[in-house]
Write a structure and sequence with these properties.
With 325 residues, this protein is mostly beta strands. It is built from no helices and 23 strands. The model has no long low-confidence stretch (mean pLDDT 97). It binds beta-L-arabinofuranose (FUB). Beta-L-arabinofuranose (FUB) binds next to strand 2 and strand 17.
Length: 325
């Protein structure tokens, strides 16, 4: 595969989470549509109401659309906005984790279950106890432990919380204070709840200091993803309003992580979001941009391109479409 490839040209899909299940690639994206809601900093224009699942036998082959696998009308606690989801497999069951605003307009993280990776998924009656904010990414550490990474600023509501408690109003730290951290939490054995209080996932600079809130080109904003390469943990994320996908490495799922560099420079569209996966001996970056919709940031299209490491394990930076206009 030489050139980046748009995977679902007939529809708008974004925020890919991607896993290899039973030898195939399964993609769990958000499903964008033209809801007519005006764009604002709160992300109200991302008014998604269902999920599809896609699968591929080969990276260059056909993409199978498994149709609607979960709809807000079937989720008992639903308010609005199904944002970035992820799927995990354990003991014969697939768990779809999704952020959704409840009836009081607060983002919570829900779980829906299926016995097949392509769903359909049956939602649980309530969101995960103690969950908040957006963008869950669930990582299987291979030793029986599964960890959820989550959080997102601005419309993702992370700034409303300190020490996992809701504040009266959301406040971003000052530029010279440590940046707000993404969260990491181990899941219970049944995959349905948090096994502990979520912890801060700290990203350190080259001097061992936490990245500062004013370090806008490097600090976390949203879109957590975790993968391993040569025994190291790679935590990657979006810098949001500076539109980069960056990464940091560490030796444990809880961190700490040390900032390493940029994976993807800005794409056309405001958001950037990704998944990194190894498939048949090669590494891929699934992501999205708004090129096909003519730059409409709420109508994003799913893409894949190859991802490479150098001999030291550093990821080679990929140029996003914003630099190619
Ligand atoms: O799709 C809605 C939000 O946009 C996601 O949750 C964020 O990561 C950003 O891509």
């Amino acid at each position: 595969m030489k050139e980046p490839r748009y995977l679902v040209p007939e529809d708008y899909m974004a925020d890919p989470a991607v896993h290899v299940f039973n030898g195939k690639l399964y993609i769990y994206p958000s499903h964008d549509w033209e809801s007519g809601i005006p764009e604002n900093d709160n992300g109200d224009h991302f008014n998604m109401k269902d999920y599809h699942v896609f699968s591929m036998d080969d990276i260059d082959g056909p993409v199978t659309d498994h149709g609607v696998v979960l709809d807000t009308k079937d989720i008992p606690w639903a308010g609005r906005q199904l944002w970035d989801s992820d799927c995990a497999y354990k003991d014969g069951t697939y768990y779809l984790y999704f952020p959704l605003k409840d009836k009081t307009d607060i983002f919570r993280i829900g779980v829906a279950v299926s016995h097949r990776p392509e769903g359909p998924f049956i939602p649980r009656e309530f969101p995960i106890r103690g969950s908040y904010s957006i963008d869950p990414a669930v990582f299987d550490d291979g030793d029986g432990n599964f960890y959820m990474y989550f959080g997102g600023l601005w419309g993702g509501q992370l700034q409303r919380y300190r020490n996992n408690k809701a504040q009266e109003c959301g406040v971003l730290p000052a530029d010279d204070e440590p940046a707000l951290c993404p969260k990491v939490v181990r899941l219970t054995g049944d995959m349905l709840e948090f096994a502990e209080e979520p912890r801060d996932l700290v990203v350190l600079d080259e001097n061992g200091h936490p990245l500062l809130a004013g370090d806008n080109q490097r600090r976390f904003f949203e879109a957590s993803w975790m993968h391993t390469y040569n025994g190291k943990y790679y935590f990657s994320y979006s810098t949001g309003d500076t539109h980069r996908i960056c990464y940091a490495t560490g030796d444990h799922p809880y961190g700490p992580f040390t900032y390493q560099g940029v994976i993807l420079t800005p794409v056309v569209g405001w958001t950037t979001h990704h998944a990194i996966v190894e498939f048949k001996g090669k590494w891929y970056l699934f992501h999205h941009d708004s090129v096909p919709s003519g730059g409409k940031t709420w109508l994003r299209s799913l893409k894949v391109c190859e991802l490479e490491y150098d001999e030291a394990g550093h990821i080679r930076t990929i140029e996003g479409t914003a630099g190619k206009e």
